[in-house]
Amino acid sequence: MNPVSQDKYSLLAQNPEQRAEYLFTTIKQQGDIWTLVDDDGAMILTSDDEDCIPVWPDEVFAQDWINGDWSQCRAYRISLEDWLQRWLPGLEEDDIQIALFPVPAEEGLILPPWEMKDKLS
């Protein structure tokens, strides 16, 4: 069994800071990050008048969001290299923040792209 599956419910119960720490650790270990896309591109959340791209440490958590308004989405894997080289500069340019490991009941922490790059570098 996938260790993420075993720990899924305990991870979802953690507070936003703990989930963010898990996200950064997992990204560095696995070398990838997950978001949701549809035929038009990456999905964007609006939080406190900010546009945010949600990201997760594993496909299983991203798939939890594929329902309702997001039922047309699919989980999308991004390599850490692409995330750092292409995605973060593009998000910075477009003034899009990053929602770190949101869960259905709450959004999670929001970081600007430059701050996430600092945490992953």
SSE arrangement:
Blueprint: H1 3-12, H2 16-30, E1 32-38, E2 41-42, E3 45-47, E4 50-55, H3 59-63, E5 74-79, H4 80-93, E6 97-100, E7 109-111, H5 113-120
Parallel strand pairs: 4-6
Antiparallel strand pairs: 1-2, 1-5, 3-4, 6-7
Helix pairs in contact: 4-5
What does this structure look like?
This protein has 121 residues and is α+β, with helices and mostly antiparallel strands. The protein has a single domain (3-120), classed as Trna Endonuclease, Chain: A, domain 1 (3-Layer(aba) Sandwich), CATH 3.40.1350.90. The chain contains five helices and seven strands. Helix 4 runs antiparallel to helix 5 (113-120).
Sum up the structure in keywords.
121 residues; alpha+beta; 5 helices; four-stranded mixed beta sheet; three-stranded antiparallel beta sheet; Trna Endonuclease, Chain: A, domain 1; 43% helix
How far the N terminus sits from the C terminus, by CA atoms, comes to 31 Å
The CATH H-level homologous superfamily: Uncharacterised protein PF11572, DUF3234
Radius of gyration: 13 Å
> CATH topology, what is it called?
Trna Endonuclease, Chain: A, domain 1
Order of helices and strands: HHEEEEHEHEEH
Oligomeric grouping of the chains: single chain
Number of domains: 1
Biggest β-sheet: strands ordered side by side in the sheet: 3-4-6-7
The chain-level structural class is alpha+beta
- Shape estimate: globular
Main sheet characteristics: 4 strands, mixed
Please report the total strand number as a whole number.
7
Tell me the β content. Answer: 25-35%
